[in-house]
Amino acid sequence: MKTKITRLALLLAIGSLMPVAYAQEKTTKEKETKTTVVEEKVVVGPEKGSIAAALGDSATFSILTKALQVTGLDATLGSHKGTFTIFAPTDEAFSKLPAGTLDKLMLPENNEKLRSLLLFHVLPGSFAMADLKNGEIKTMNGEKVEIDIKSDTKQVEDSKIFKSDVVATNGIIHSVDKVMVPHSLDGFAKLDEK
């Protein structure tokens, strides 16, 4: 009898341990199945203090910032590789374009035209207002702009420079009141009807 009780006690003890062992195994398996690897994509924006960062931080240049992003030029102007001068059209300047022109320029099939338009506003190198002289200067799109510096007015093409010499880590920003149109885009989406 004593042997039967001992066996019964032993079986009960083993039986009571089994659910614990099973529960622990199940918990371990649940943890394993809940473990997931999350890959994060690192989005690299313009470097701090760069032309692209300065434009992006200003509410005045939201359209220009979007256009730079669409064309990928935000990477160029957001990097500390090279120096640039940009004649930056304000949102108000973009609003002076003929109706529908900006929307048409932002279409994927017109990316190169938009890029050419934007590069017409960029000079290679850093030019403060004091460095700019009357005459023509070649832009990053390969065409030249006319600089007209007088004691009371400062213009590039027919755009008035109203805020100048905003220094960034990779160049200088001059704000202009009109979007300049390169000759290569004359006739595109009514750009020459400003």
TrEMBL record:
UniProt entry keywords in alphabetical sequence: Signal
Q: Where is the FAS1 domain?
A: 48-180
Return the Gene3D superfamilies for the record: FAS1 domain
Q: List the signal peptide residues.
A: 1-23
Q: Which domain of life, per UniProt?
A: Bacteria
Enumerate the PANTHER family for this protein: FI19380P1, PERIOSTIN-RELATED
Q: Which protein is depicted?
A: Fasciclin domain-containing protein
Q: What is the lineage of its organism?
A: Bacteria, Pseudomonadati, Verrucomicrobiota, Verrucomicrobiia, Verrucomicrobiales
